[in-house]
User: Which sequence fits this backbone?
């Protein structure tokens, strides 16, 4: 799944470690999310959205075909 | 790996303490197996083969060492907040949990295929293998079915 995490991190000058610490996951999970190799759970998506003060759909890009929506 | 979701080091420490309370079972089982193996080897005229006695002593000693090492490691982790946090993240990170589940699935498929093929092919040479290994397959499937029903009722 495509995300805007990397762009938002850079905009807010936040490191992967800082974000990982804030949302209670490993740095590897943040890397995988940024590369689109891992789909976050609803709870993690919510935590990340809350961290950046945005809505989930502003960060996680749902591909209607991929997600069969 | 852990039963309840944990969000802080204190909660994780409590879970580790709870697990440590049961950890003595591993070295105890290992020690009993090891002593029985030694007793069979040196203490009496055992009907068991040298190979089986070697398996008992080897497995027993292995379990004992693993149990002791795990206990010491857990105590060290609990004393160090940085290590505790690293372990908490390792065990509670949702991606790690997903990877672990996937690895279990793959291992289960390989195990089932190994038992099935081992039973069918090995049984040609050692007939008892068919019974033992296919019983293993049945045990696995029954355990899966029961676990599925229980979890389905709970969630």
Assistant:
């Amino acid at each position: 799944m495509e995300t805007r995490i990397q762009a938002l991190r850079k905009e807010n000058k936040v490191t992967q470690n800082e974000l990982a610490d804030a949302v209670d996951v490993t740095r590897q999970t943040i890397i995988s999310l940024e590369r689109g190799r891992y789909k976050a759970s609803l709870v993690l998506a919510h935590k990340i959205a809350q961290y950046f003060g945005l809505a989930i759909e502003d960060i996680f890009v749902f591909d209607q075909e991929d997600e069969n929506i | 790996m852990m039963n309840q979701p944990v969000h802080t080091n204190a909660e994780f420490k409590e879970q580790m303490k709870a697990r440590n309370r049961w950890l003595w079972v591993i070295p105890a089982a290992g020690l009993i197996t090891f002593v029985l193996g030694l007793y069979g080897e040196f203490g009496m005229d055992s009907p068991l083969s040298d190979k089986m006695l070697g398996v008992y002593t080897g497995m027993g000693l292995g379990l004992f060492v693993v149990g002791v090492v795990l206990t010491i490691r857990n105590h060290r982790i609990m004393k160090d907040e940085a290590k505790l946090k690293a372990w908490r993240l390792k065990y509670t990170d949702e991606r790690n949990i997903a990877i672990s589940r996937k690895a279990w699935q793959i291992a289960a498929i390989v195990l089932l295929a190994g038992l099935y093929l081992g039973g069918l092919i090995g049984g040609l040479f050692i007939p008892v293998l068919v019974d033992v290994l296919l019983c293993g397959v049945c045990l696995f499937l029954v355990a899966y079915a029961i676990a599925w029903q229980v979890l389905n009722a709970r969630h």
Remarks:
- Chain B touches chain A at residues 7, 89-90, 92-96, 98 (CB under 8 Å).
